[in-house]
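Session log. Operator J.P. requested a structure for one protein chain; no other inputs attached. Running the standard single-chain path with token output.
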Amino acid sequence: MDRMESLAGRPMPRAVTDTALALLLAAGCLALPVAMPPGGPELRSPDVYFAVLVLLTTLPLALHRLFPLPALLVSAVSAGVLQSLHYVPELSGPEGTSIGPTYVAVATAVFLTAMRCTPRIATLVGAVLIPASAVTEAVLAPAGHRITALFTDAVLLVAAWALGRLTRARAAIRDQALERAGALEREQAANARAAVMEERARIARELHDIVAHNVSLMVVQTIAADRVQERNAGKAHELHGTIEETGRATVTELRRLLDVLRTDEETAGDPSKEPPQPTIEALPALVESVRAAGLEIDYRTTGAPAELPAGSHLTVYRVVQEALTNTLKHAGRTRTALQVAWEPEQERLSVRLCDDGPRPDGEPVRPPVAAHGTGHGLVGMRERVGAVGGSLHTGTRPGGGYCVHAVIPLPPSESVPASVTASAPRHEGHSAYAGHPRPAGR
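Structure written below.
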């Protein structure tokens, strides 16, 4: 009732609605003497007082939204005066029950008050004003019709009051439903933003892996090119070309990842706009790029490759990439052994990378980060391996050097006997060098 829909389908303000209602009731009351049938009750002829009282009964409804209780009182009192002066027929008399426009105006005022006011005012109207109006009608009614007039007025006003309270309750339920829907929408938006932030954090980790590895390669290759510049110009030129290719690849990957960070909704549900993720098949190319930096790598693969989820593919590649990068940082151009072992009988893929440590006659390297440092290399590897249900062990070798051993679980295979899978641990990941801890910041 606060807003009515117009014929054009647009909401109509309450002031317009109340004014139109007041004018409609005023026209009905003014036309009542003309509309009375012949032989009806004898009424007083309309005059100026009749017009004034009709306007006082109906026009306060136009201001009801501002002054609900005073408007109701003025309408009820004016309607009572109209009846007491015999300008309108009694509610119940010898001619029967007659509910004219003046009674409808009072009932409308009761309805609007019960709907718009607080429960306290609505209770006051129902407990005081309605009984007083019913008693007034009983006193003004002719003898023998007072009880009928009392009950008729009471039923009319109570029905209007109850309808007003029901409308208010329905409006409150509607507002609560809208509020809950808004809260749910805000929660969904917050969850969507959290998911976006989580995805961006994952992309930031990818950015760290790619850029850190390629930049480390460029640094090592630059040092190597500078040292062989005078002795082997051809080798230096080759290293400079490798540095250029690595730099271009780094810039390309960086642009792709930043493009993903910039586009929120454009790339939603469109995987083709995201950079392709490397797999285990890309390890030989990774090894070759590190060999170009001067690192001696013995790369071996054993066992028959098995089906592996895309997340596990990416995890293996990133672990090898990070391990090689750490070797370049901390051991320089040393000898490294990389072994990728497919072990379907134990439902696991084992990746082991061990280096011999810095060479005594080699170039100096940056010292390792102290224990409990803030490095993110090993932490990132552990997070990745743990996310796919695997295990990671790292540590120094007794004779010098460092080892990284990752175990990635394989999907269950129907060809493997149940006794084998029951007896063999899926995530063993044991390392012979676990007893020789390595600084966690490497």
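Operator note: Confidence is low (pLDDT under 50) at residues 1-9, 265-274, 364-375, 414-442.
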